[in-house]
Design a protein that fits this description.
single chain; 542 residues; mainly beta; Immunoglobulin-like; nine-stranded antiparallel β-sheet; six-stranded mixed β-sheet; 44 strands
């Protein structure tokens, strides 16, 4: 009997020593009222960083940051939400489950005037930080304006105008002291005499009461005209300031040439102007000048970015090594060379053969091409993949670090493609909601992105590439859910993927290209037997 008791105690001890499973608590989506795109960006969705456990988003000037309503807050399965008591208007009523547009949004109001922490509880606690940035654009534009200064804290605006501007007869075009959605009384365009300070009642978009602002207008001897160039590979943007009411003339030429070419269309908005130069040559020095009222400004220069091509773009260079299990691990790089492309073969060959391999079935009969194959590898589906970056094994998952250094501005990606689809017969064992995909045609997927940062994809977290993320400068993609053949040798088709530039004022730092024989292969969903051939990648500059 005593022995049975001891065994029971030991069994209890063993039970208590078993560690809790690691189930990460992640924020999947987060939305608030008034959500908008970041300055210079396009998509309005929040930027969710699962590595740092941070959420960053932007709101417009229609909402009060101190009582901002959360309208969507979804989390990973099984996670509970613990809200910050100090930040929530009513923390006891803030939902502990993920939600989308709850019936009573009063219960989800939070003070986001500073970053707010949320704890997601699974078997462990995961602290997330949500930062909301409000965009209030206060624009001032008056005739003869050189520049303006807005002091929000003291509610003062100072406008500097040209020396010949009559202060008693100022024409106000725009004076949004409360932001684009705010109200200014009296209507600024009806006030002309600024020989003395003028008072205005200003309220922001969410305010019912107004505050008094004082506006001063002074003369200045400053030169109103300034300019700067942002050069790409085949184009450039000249932008700067000009005196209110003036339209500058922008001219350019190759450095050392004799004749100037005027830009036909110069866009002026208040005291800002932009001019787009197109048809330029890569890696070439140019001169430009800006003239106002027939007076030419100082000649300045810029140099366009080179028309850089993709390393091993022909996919001719490969080498293989034998793993401890006796399998061939193929690498898309010459032996001993620094890798540019890589694959997930390092993960596949832990249990099977490489599923991205070289082939002599090329589009032009020369060298090699890449063959990407979707296969069931004992425990999980593995899509053939090829991408620019690095790969590391994480158990039965992978960590992809996408991107290599790159500073050019291509207009398109050209490649040669052949594809054999199959019926999707496997979906993620960890995601029951993906079963609806079964029975559909599998889809190949190739995307290209220019970014300011490398991007880390963890298949364990079901990460996907955010094509509208804040670091993305340009993006383009190709996909097909049917067989693809063409007139090129061995049935290849030439495909051009146009790049859409979300920003034209930021230089990319990294090039990303990702190719997969199954679009949702990183979520272990696809058709066993799908095959994608790829050859001769080339960047187009037009």
């Amino acid at each position: 009997m005593m022995m049975a008791g001891l065994l029971a105690l030991q069994a209890c001890k063993i039970e208590n020593d078993i560690p809790y499973p690691i189930v990460e608590g992640n924020i999947e989506s987060f939305e608030v009222e008034g959500q908008c795109a970041a300055p210079g960006g396009t998509g309005t969705q929040a930027q969710i960083n699962k590595s740092d456990r941070t959420v960053t988003l932007y709101v417009d000037d229609t909402v009060d940051l101190t009582t901002l309503r959360v309208t969507r807050f979804t989390v990973s399965e099984g996670a509970k939400i613990l809200a910050d008591e100090a930040a929530c208007v009513d923390v006891e009523k803030f939902p502990s489950e993920g939600f989308e547009k709850p019936g009573n949004t009063e219960d989800t109001r939070v003070d986001f005037s500073r970053p707010v922490s949320f704890i997601l509880q699974t078997y462990q606690d995961y602290k997330w930080t949500v930062t909301v940035n409000q965009i209030i654009e206060r624009e001032i534009d008056v005739m003869g304006q050189i520049r303006s200064v807005v002091d929000v804290e003291n509610r003062i605006a100072i406008i500097y105008v040209a020396p010949d501007q009559d202060l008693s007869n100022i024409q106000v075009n725009t004076m949004n002291l409360g932001g684009a959605s705010g109200t200014v009384t009296p209507e600024p365009s009806t006030v002309h005499d600024f020989s003395r300070p003028q008072k205005f009642q200003v309220s922001r978009g969410w305010e019912e009461t107004a505050q008094e602002w004082t506006v001063y207008v002074y003369h200045t001897e400053e030169d109103a005209t300034s300019s700067e160039a942002f050069a790409r590979t085949t184009s450039a943007t000249i932008s700067g300031t000009v005196q209110g009411g003036k339209t500058p003339v922008v001219e350019y030429k190759k450095s050392g040439a004799s004749g100037w070419t005027p830009v036909a269309d110069v866009q002026v908005n208040g005291t800002r102007y932009t001019a787009e130069l197109t048809g330029l040559s890569g890696a070439t020095a140019y001169s430009y000048r800006v003239s106002v009222d027939g007076v030419a400004g100082e000649e300045q220069t810029f140099t366009t970015a080179p028309a850089t091509q993709i390393e091993n773009g022909g996919l001719d260079d490969w080498w293989s090594e034998t793993t401890q299990g006796g399998r061939n691990l193929w690498h898309p790089v010459a032996q001993g060379a620094t890798p540019f492309w890589t694959t997930g073969n390092k993960g596949a060959t832990t249990i099977a053969d490489s599923n991205t391999v070289p082939t002599e079935e090329t589009c032009d009969g020369n060298g090699r091409a890449a063959l990407l194959q979707t296969k069931w590898l004992t425990m999980k589906l593995a899509a053939g993949n090829l991408f620019i970056g690095d790969f590391e094994v994480d158990g039965t998952h992978g960590v992809l670090t996408l991107g290599r250094e790159f500073e050019a501005f291509p207009s398109a990606l050209r490649m040669h493609v052949k594809y054999e689809t199959s019926t999707i017969n496997h979906s993620s064992s960890d995601r029951d909601d993906w079963d609806y995909m079964k029975g559909r045609n599998d889809t190949c997927h190739v995307y290209i992105a220019l970014t300011t940062e490398k991007v880390v994809i963890r298949t364990r977290n079901f990460d996907v590439f955010d094509k509208k993320g804040p670091s993305v400068v340009a993006y383009g993609e190709y996909q097909s859910g049917v067989n693809v053949t063409g007139s090129e040798r061995n049935g290849y088709a030439q495909v051009d993927v146009d790049l859409e530039y979300y920003r034209t004022d930021v230089a990319p730092k990294y090039l990303i290209i990702v190719c997969s024989s199954s679009k949702y292969g990183n979520l272990f969903t696809g058709g066993d037997g799908s095959r994608l051939w790829l050859d001769n990648f080339e960047l187009i500059y037009e």
